């Protein structure tokens, strides 16, 4: 879905008619298209809505439509349902979380409270779009509160301790193909050393890695913000080796000369294409399994949390952490002070000695 001037949502008279039709028939594709158009048009950052946000909201809206009923005979009408109905939806998603949260091996862990909140935010976005389009007079989701996890964020989200950080960076050595080995080490370095987000790694272009200047230029950061990240010695070596291997693949004709993505896929059927965030997650989780991390630490964002924690440990300066990670506020970076388990252990040991 792409925002274009010829969109069916551009003209007010067509917009209202189409949105009423989509809401009445619960046309998922049309409702997703309307929501994306509205998000891009009304974004506070001039259309800078991240692909991850769009994907998350798409999943949420489809889930909500499944809850409200089949399109042929919905239990709830999108045009008339109220706050009570949406509260029941949130309760239903939380019941899923409670039911599945303590199942045995091999079972789904269900929705986390964070996912339940994201689902609600997606529904809010849908109703904002419907109000804007004239299909609803009000947004019933505004009166529904998102659930909050009482567990502190630093207790739920952990970073790698120093020994496992080194073990992770050495993990690609198991790869027999030098190109795969170099690519995997480069993508790990971008996350666990330089602190890039998953989408930032996927979006990075070859020309944005400027090793002569010892920096990586992130042009498409969260919220459309750009930043330049200095590249230290070991990270520079890893990126340099991948760029060399990547050039070898291009000379051999295995990689298209017009492919500008830094990190590419080696998966059959997608060989040489830009690596997706799903592909990135699969690679990273594979290495996490290899070094023995528990499943609750899986996910590309663990790399970024580790980078933030290491930066704070090295500098004790949240302003530096905020600048390198591209946080909108230094307050956001404060969690990395709490994520540093080594600091807490040192404090407890010092107290014990006292």
Ordered list of secondary-structure elements with their pairings:
Layout: H1 12-25, H2 28-42, H3 51-68, H4 83-100, H5 113-133, H6 153-156, H7 162-170, H8 178-192, H9 198-203, E1 209-210, E2 215-218, E3 227-230, H10 233-251, H11 277-290, H12 301-315, H13 318-325, H14 330-333, H15 335-339, H16 341-353
Antiparallel strand pairs: 1-2, 2-3
Helix pairs in contact: 1-2, 2-3, 2-5, 3-5, 4-5, 7-8, 8-10, 12-13
Task: Give an account of the 3D structure.
- The structure is a single chain.
- Helix 4 (83-100) packs antiparallel against helix 5 (113-133), helix 8 (178-192) runs antiparallel to helix 10 and helix 12 runs antiparallel to helix 13 (318-325).
- This protein folds into 2 domains: 12-150, DNA polymerase, domain 1; 156-353, hpI Integrase, Chain A, CATH 1.10.443.10.
- The longest helix is centred in the middle third of the chain and has 21 residues, at 113-133.
- Mean pLDDT is 85; it is low at 1-5 and 98-109.
- It has a 3-stranded antiparallel β-sheet with strand order 1-2-3.
- The protein is mostly helical and 354 residues long.
- It is built from 16 helices and 3 strands.
Shape label: globular
Total discrete domains: 2
Please give the number of β-strands. 3
SS summary, helix count:
16
Head-to-tail CA distance between termini: 62 Å
Based on CA atoms alone, the radius of gyration comes out at 23 Å
Residues in helices, as a percent range:
55-70%
The CATH superfamily name of the largest domain is Intergrase catalytic core
Oligomer: single chain
CATH class of the largest domain, named Mainly Alpha
The largest sheet has its strands arranged as 1-2-3
Overall pLDDT metric: 85
CATH architecture of the largest domain: Orthogonal Bundle
What is the beta-strand fraction?
A: under 5%
The description of the largest β-sheet is: 3 strands, antiparallel
């Amino acid at each position: 879905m792409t925002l274009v001037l010829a969109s069916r949502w551009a003209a007010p008279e067509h917009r209202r008619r189409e949105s009423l039709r989509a809401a009445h028939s619960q046309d998922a594709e049309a409702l997703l298209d309307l929501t994306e158009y509205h998000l891009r048009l009304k974004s506070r950052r001039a259309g800078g809505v991240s692909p991850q946000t769009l994907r998350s909201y798409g999943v949420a809206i489809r889930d909500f439509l499944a809850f409200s009923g089949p399109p042929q005979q919905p239990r709830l009408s999108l045009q008339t349902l109220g706050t009570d109905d949406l509260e029941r939806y949130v309760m239903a998603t939380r019941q899923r979380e409670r039911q599945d949260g303590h199942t045995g091996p091999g079972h789904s862990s269900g929705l986390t409270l964070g996912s339940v909140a994201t689902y609600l935010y997606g529904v809010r976005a849908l109703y904002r779009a419907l109000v804007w389009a004239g299909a609803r007079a009000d947004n019933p989701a505004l009166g529904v509160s998102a659930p909050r996890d009482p567990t502190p964020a630093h207790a739920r989200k952990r970073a790698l301790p120093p020994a496992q950080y080194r073990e992770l960076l050495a993990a690609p050595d198991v790869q027999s193909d030098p190109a795969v080995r170099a690519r995997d080490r480069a993508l790990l370095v971008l996350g666990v050393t330089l602190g890039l987000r998953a989408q930032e790694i996927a979006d990075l272009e070859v020309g944005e890695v400027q090793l002569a200047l010892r920096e990586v230029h992130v042009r498409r950061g969260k919220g459309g913000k750009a930043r330049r990240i200095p590249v230290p010695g070991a990270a520079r070596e890893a990126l340099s080796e991948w760029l060399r291997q990547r050039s070898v693949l291009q000379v051999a004709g295995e990689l298209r000369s017009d492919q500008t993505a830094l990190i590419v896929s080696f998966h059959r059927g997608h060989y040489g294409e830009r690596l997706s965030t799903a592909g990135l997650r699969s690679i990273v989780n594979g290495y996490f399994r290899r070094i023995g991390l528990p499943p609750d630490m899986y996910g590309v964002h663990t790399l970024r949390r580790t980078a933030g924690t290491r930066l704070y440990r090295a500098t004790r300066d949240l302003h530096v952490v905020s600048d390198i990670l591209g946080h909108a506020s230094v307050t956001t970076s404060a969690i990395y002070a709490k994520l540093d388990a080594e600091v807490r252990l040192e404090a407890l040991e010092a107290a014990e000695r006292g």
